Amino acid sequence: MELEDSVEIQFVGPNNPVYRTGDYWLIPARVATGNVEWPYEPVPGSAEKRPLAKLPDGITHHYAPLRVVDWDGKTLTLNRECRLQLPGAGPIPARRR
Predict the structure, then answer these.
(1) N or C: which end of the chain has fewer CB within 10 A?
(2) Is 25 a member of any domain?
């Protein structure tokens, strides 16, 4: 797929690549040289190089448990709080103008 000014992209990957909403690739382009900085790999049996297929640079998801719970099929038991509790700053007075 051509984007503009001879910059082309293609999506290649394993047999069943998985792309998700929000995936992105960082593609540094330099006006001074007129080039896109992209990693290359050698072509086997040749002196040529081809652009390297990269996995997305993001989106990276982070998960954190909020609470440990038990469910026995009838009753939900809240066991352990996992959130880090920070001490409060106390009341913050409003600034008068």
Answers:
(1) C
(2) yes
pTM: 0.49
Mean pLDDT of 16-45: 86
pLDDT tens sequence across 43-95: 999 999 988 888 888 888 888 899 999 999 999 999 999 988 777 777 777 78
- For 36, counting Cβ atoms within 10 Å of its Cβ (0-12 exposed, 13-18 middle, 19+ buried), the class is middle
Q: How many structural domains compose the chain?
A: 1
List the domain range (segments joined by +) for residue 20: 1-63
* Beta pairing partners, 42: 49
Question: Is residue 92 in some structural domain?
Answer: no
- Tokens read off for 3: 């984007």
Extract the runs of DSSP E, i.e. beta strands, from 9-96: 29-30, 35-36, 40-42, 49-51, 67-71, 76-81
In a domain, 41, yes or no: yes
